[in-house]
C-alpha cells in the first residue's frame, strides 16, 4: 500500500493517526499541493477530484476520500475497532464522524480557502464574508462538542474515528491561529487527552 499525501494538511493526517492507532505502516508519497502537483494529469489519474489523501493498493486500485480509506483499513485490520462494534455503535460513530466532518472540519477548510491565504496563487476564489461565516459555524460546533464532552470521555462512546477527525480539525484551527474560548473546558480537556496519545504525533 502507498499513501499519497501532503503531510502538513489535515485530511492526510486523519489517515496517519488512524493507521498509527491500528499499527499499520505503509509507504508515503508527498504531493506538493502549494505547487499544484495534485492538479496535474498524473495525480488526477489517481483521484479526479485532485485531493489528498489517496491510498494505492497493490493491485493498483486508488481509494480517495478519507473516511473511505478508514473503512478499508478497518476491514483489513479490525483491531482495535475505530468505527464501532455492532449496529448501534457503528451508527453512533458514523453519526458523530459525519457531524464533525461536515460542521467543523469542512467549515474550517472553507474558511482556510476563502478567508486566509489558503493555497496562495492556486486559489480561484476569495470571499471573506463567507469564510468568516464558516469560521463562526465551526466555533458553534466546538461549543456543541464542549457540551457533549461534559458527559463522556470520547465523542462517540469509546475512542473512535470521530475523535480523530475532531483532533485533526482542532489542530488545523490552531495552525490557522483560530482560537476557541478557554471556557470550552470539556473540549480543552479532551483535546489535551487526545494530544497525549502516541498516535497524535503521526
Ligand atoms: N473529501 C476529501 C477532501 C480531500 C481534501 O480536500 N484534501 C485537501 C488536503 S487536506 C486537498 O487535497 N486540497 C487540495 C485543494 O484544495 O486544491 C476527503 O475526505 O479526503
Can you lay out the helices and strands and say which pair or pack?
Elements lengths: L1 E4 L4 H13 L4 E4 L10 H4 L9 E3 L5 E3 L1 H11 L9 H30 L12 H21 L12 H15 L9 H12 L6
The protein binds glutathione (GSH).
Structure in words:
The protein has seven helices and four strands. Strands 2-1-3-4 form a four-stranded mixed sheet, covered by helices on one side. The longest helix has 30 residues. 52% of the residues lie in helices and 7% in strands. The model has no long low-confidence stretch (mean pLDDT 97). It folds into two domains: 75 residues, Glutaredoxin (3-Layer(aba) Sandwich); 116 residues, Glutathione S-transferase Yfyf (Class Pi), Chain A, domain 2, CATH 1.20.1050.10. It is an alpha+beta fold and 202 residues long. Glutathione (GSH) binds next to α1.
Report the average pLDDT across residues: 97
**CATH topological fold name of the largest domain:** Glutathione S-transferase Yfyf (Class Pi), Chain A, domain 2
Q: State the share of residues found in helices, binned by percent.
A: 40-55%
Backbone shape: globular
Alpha carbon gap, first and last residue:
17 Å
CATH architecture of the largest domain: Up-down Bundle
H/E element string?
EHEHEEHHHHH
What are the low-pLDDT stretches, counting only 5+ consecutive residues below 50? none
Q: So how many helices?
A: 7
Q: Find the structural class using helix and strand composition.
A: alpha+beta
Bound molecules: glutathione
Amino acid at each position: 500500500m502507498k499513501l499519497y499525501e501532503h503531510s502538513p494538511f489535515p485530511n492526510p493526517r486523519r489517515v496517519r493517526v488512524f493507521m498509527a492507532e491500528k499499527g499499520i505502516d505503509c509507504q508515503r508519497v508527498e504531493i506538493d499541493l502549494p505547487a499544484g502537483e495534485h492538479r496535474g494529469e498524473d495525480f488526477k489519474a489517481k483521484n479526479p477530484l485532485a485531493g489528498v489523501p489517496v491510498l494505492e493498493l497493490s493491485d493498483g486500485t486508488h481509494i480517495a476520500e478519507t473516511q473511505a480509506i478508514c473503512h478499508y483499513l478497518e476491514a483489513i485490520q479490525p483491531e482495535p475497532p475505530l468505527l464501532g462494534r455492532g449496529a448501534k455503535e457503528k451508527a453512533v460513530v458514523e453519526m458523530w464522524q459525519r457531524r464533525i466532518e461536515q460542521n467543523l472540519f469542512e467549515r474550517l477548510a472553507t474558511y482556510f480557502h476563502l478567508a486566509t491565504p489558503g493555497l496562495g496563487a492556486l486559489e480561484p476564489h476569495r470571499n471573506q464574508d463567507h469564510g468568516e461565516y464558516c469560521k463562526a459555524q465551526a466555533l458553534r460546533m466546538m461549543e456543541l462538542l464542549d457540551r457533549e464532552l461534559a458527559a463522556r470521555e470520547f465523542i462517540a462512546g469509546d475512542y473512535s474515528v470521530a475523535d480523530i477527525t475532531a483532533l485533526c480539525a482542532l489542530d488545523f484551527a490552531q495552525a490557522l491561529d483560530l482560537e476557541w474560548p478557554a471556557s470550552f473546558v470539556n473540549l480543552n480537556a479532551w483535546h489535551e487527552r487526545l494530544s497525549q496519545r502516541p498516535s497524535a504525533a503521526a
